Amino acid sequence: MVDEDGSFAGYASIFDVTDSQKDIVLRGAFKRTLAEREGGQSVKLLWQHRMDEPIGVLTEIREDAKGLYVEGKLLLDVQRGWEAYTLLKSGAIDGLSIGYSAVDFDFDGETGIRMLSDVELWEVSLVTFPANSHAGVTAVKAEPPETIREFEHFLRDVGFSRAAAKSIAAGGFNYAEKQRDADEGQEDWIKLDRALDKVINTLSF
Q: Where does 130-201 have alpha helices with state H?
């Protein structure tokens, strides 16, 4: 969920989803405020929407087809930043949420739902329970392993035993092919597929 230096990535808001506050954020809702805030550089990274508890910095923030994508880095020498890192690392929390003011929206009087077409974005928070249940930390933003030892450690982190990690790191796909053909190796093959997907997702092209 989070890299050793505190880096993470995820979605702070997902478009076209009714959240617990009965708000629906529409695609393009962040376009103006991100442009005015120079790509979101002044948007703060907070803990549980608490204005007095910044826990890091946002290194990238942008809209895509899915929602508001963010990359951030927790400040590990700040007590709350370290606590947030520990909770993320353990999987105890993984929610992201936004603090904003509605600028332009349509209101449905029957359902009480607001459809937000323009918002003033102030902050992104790491939270226990996000208003938008689909928003959260989804990936690690990290460099791919460059040595056999780094790859071995990576495989241990995603669930392989020490022996299996050493075999895969040393033998690469030769080991994978043997495991794929063995009846007792199906579980390891699935884990390898997921591990390789994770490596690929860390690469930038």
A: 148-157, 162-171, 173-181, 186-201
How far is the CA of 167 from the CAs of 184, 188, 189, 196, in angstroms?
16, 12, 13, 15
Catalytic residues: 49, 97, 123
16 vs 195: CA distance, rounded Å: 31
Q: Is the pTM of this model over 0.85?
A: no
Per residue in 155-167, pLDDT tens?
Answer: 665 557 778 777 7
Q: Which two tokens stand for residue 107?
A: 């209101």
Interhelix angle 162-171/173-181, nearest 10 degrees? 120
Digit-coded pLDDT (tens) for 81-132: 999 999 988 888 899 999 999 999 999 999 999 999 999 999 999 999 888 8
Indicate the domain borders of the chain: 7-139, 148-201
